[in-house]
Design goal:
Helix content: 10-25%
Shape: globular
Number of helices: 8
Distance between the termini: 87 Å
Structural class: alpha+beta
């Protein structure tokens, strides 16, 4: 166990870069000396031996375990770096520039990671797909130049090409892992011609493809090989969704192909919508897919695209299996809430749920027991930092970092870490950073949500127009259940809007003839009808006939009683200024009785009532008793 490599992770922020040891303490590795200037990118080798980062003046290569500096390459303006699978070669890419002599700028260079010697250089204009792809043994390296696939032997870079193949319309290539590597070549749909994927054996490029598939709705593709390199999953997409259902294009199809050519099929997905994510199990015998409109469906398939398990629907768009294939993480990131569900592959039971909100990067640790989540910039510029969770749910480590750009675990081969136990391991003691974070974090106050009040009524004592009983639906908060256009209570005085700080002035006195003058503006037979009923309207006040569609009289004639007491000006509809406490009580009780009668009618018609509605009906006798106590009957 002494030779076992330690777990660590690296991070890169705007003003810092560092290496952090793993469980249990998560301490910074003191022997690592960060640069004085911001780093542009970093990379671990696939075997975890080496660590390198690029700064504006060059590239530095370290031994990952001890953080000892091995090589420093003076290469200005490096943007991307990459290691070969065994860490033998380091590739660098810089933005192409025009040279004075007119020659091509060889901006893709290959170096020996041990000696720092430049071995070969190429011209690579596009940053997308700039890396050379190596076989797992580093016996061959391939790259796509235009429509030509070029093959090299890294041990003999100086000899140049050892093989090549021209594929008309080729837009991307993906080299499989495994001992018998194959090459998947994608040809995008163009000018009515269907797209295609062709699979070639790397050792026999000149031979016909071992498997090929053509399809439409495929302007770009995502290709993922299984660990053994025997099967490949292909997701095709278009740039524009013709049905206008998605900003990100339309999913064309989801296919499973065999490298040997003895099996191919379209994976049947029983829910409409895009494929959000898919991932192979490390055992190469099954894969998981998240698909469909939200809430999306998650399904586990075998190597013949037969359904193994349905995880149901949830708001998720990310799936990942730990390196041992024992645990499955299903999560919703991006514009989703950040909930992570972890399942045991053996029992298919959910182990725990983690609330990792605002996560933009999620990754299993090499031993499969921890999950690293990070909030990165510029996706989000607040709350940037790293959190490490145990697979059973507890938070193990928190590291807030301002403007965090990049983070990742140090890769360790599966056979170099302890095997995953039969039973799910218990969580160790969290690091001290968790307690420190809990002490600093400000608790978000939970403000009780009350009834909605319009802006004009906020900051004032709520009138009954904006109050509602706990056992009445929100629709009954407006008087009589009808819309009221009356002004906000307390904001009008004497029929005029009160401006804070302005001098008060007496309201103008209307002459008796004013009402008739205003009435003459209305023409037609309705005018006479209104004048005929003017006496009845006058009982409610001088303005009762001028705004018939706005005034909403409360029940039981309470307005009539109040109008007789204070003159011709009616109270504001829905207001409480003109009602004494007894009248208010009577009105509220009558409203409840009316609501109960409506519920009874629904019950007679056979409609199903909720428990709260039935409980409300039971209160009828109590309400009538209370009305009787006030000297009234209903």
């Amino acid at each position: 166990m002494a030779s076992q490599p330690s777990q660590q992770y690296a991070y890169r922020a705007q003003k810092s870069i560092g290496l952090v040891g793993g469980t249990p303490n998560y301490d910074h590795i003191d022997s690592f000396q960060p640069p004085d200037v911001p780093a542009r990118t970093f990379k671990y080798s696939s075997d975890g031996r080496l660590f390198a980062y690029a700064i504006p003046t060059g590239v530095r290569i370290y031994q990952a375990e001890s953080a000892q500096l091995l090589q420093e390459l003076s290469l200005p303006n490096i943007v991307e770096i990459s290691f070969s699978p065994r860490g033998t070669y380091l590739s660098t890419w810089e933005r192409p520039v025009k040279l004075e002599d007119g020659s091509q700028h060889k901006n893709l260079r290959i170096f020996s990671a041990s000696t720092g010697e430049e071995l070969v250089a190429f011209s690579q204009k596009s940053q997308e797909g700039w890396e050379l792809q190596y076989t797992i043994s580093e016996s061959h390296a391939v790259r796509l130049v235009g429509q030509e696939i070029q093959v090299f032997r890294p041990a003999e870079w100086s000899k140049g090409l050892v093989d090549k193949l021209k594929v008309e319309g080729a837009t991307s290539i993906t080299l499989s892992p495994g001992l018998n590597p194959s090459l998947a070549v994608f040809v995008a749909e163009k000018k009515g011609q269907p797209a295609s994927v062709k699979i070639y054996s790397l050792t026999a490029l000149g031979a016909p493809p071992t498997c090929q598939k053509t399809f439409f709705k495929a302007q770009r593709s995502t290709i993922k090989w299984n660990t053994l390199g025997t099967q490949v999953l292909i997701l095709t997409q278009t740039d524009v969704d013709q049905a206008n259902k998605s900003y990100y294009g339309e999913t064309g199809g989801f296919y499973l192909l065999s490298a040997a050519g003895n099996f191919e099929c379209r994976v049947t997905l029983d829910k409409d919508g895009p494929v959000h994510d898919f991932a192979w199990s490390p055992n190469s015998k099954e894969f998981g897919v998240i698909y469909g409109y939200m809430p999306a469906k998650t399904m586990l398939f075998d190597q013949r695209a037969r359904t193994l398990h349905d995880f149901g629907t949830a708001f998720c768009n990310f799936i990942s299996l730990n390196p041992q294939g024992r645990l499955i993480a299903i999560a919703g990131f991006g514009n989703l809430a950040g909930k992570v569900d972890i399942y045991d592959r053996r029992t298919l039971n959910k182990i725990t749920s983690i609330d990792a909100s605002n996560t933009s990067h999620c990754e299993w640790s090499p031993d499969g027991r921890f999950l690293l989540t990070a909030t990165l910039s510029p996706r989000l510029r607040v709350d940037n930092g790293i959190k490490v969770w145990h697979c059973t749910g507890p938070l193990m480590h928190v590291q807030p970092i301002e403007e965090l750009y990049q983070t990742s675990w140090r890769p360790i081969p599966v056979d170099a870490v302890p095997p995953f136990p039969q039973a799910i391991p218990a969580a160790p003691t969290p690091a001290t950073s968790v307690q420190q974070h809990a002490a600093v974090a400000k608790p978000t106050p939970t403000k009780p949500a009350g009834a909605y009040r319009p802006p004009g009524a906020r900051g004032l004592e709520a009138s009954s127009a904006y109050k509602r009983d706990d056992d009445t639906p929100s629709g009954g908060s407006t008087p009589n259940g009808r819309f009221s256009r009356s002004p906000a209570p307390g904001r009008f005085q004497n029929g005029r809007r009160h401006v804070p700080g302005a001098p008060t002035s007496p309201s103008p006195v209307r002459q008796p003839g004013d009402q008739d003058k205003r009435g003459r503006k209305k023409k037609g037979p309705r005018e006479g009808g209104k004048r005929d009923g003017g006496a009845g309207a006058g009982a409610l006040g001088g303005e009762g006939s001028a705004r018939p569609s706005i005034d909403i009289p409360p029940p039981n004639g309470s307005v009539d009683a109040v109008a007789g007491a204070n003159g011709s000006v009616p109270p504001t509809p829905g207001g409480d200024n003109g009602l004494d406490p007894t009248a208010k009580k009577v009105r509220n009780l009558n409203k409840k009785l009316k609501a109960i009668e409506e519920l009874k009618e629904k019950q007679k018609k056979g409609e199903r009532l909720e428990a709260t509605q039935l409980k409300k009906i039971d209160t009828e006798a109590e309400i009538r008793k209370e009305l009787a106590g006030l000297g009234l009957t209903s």
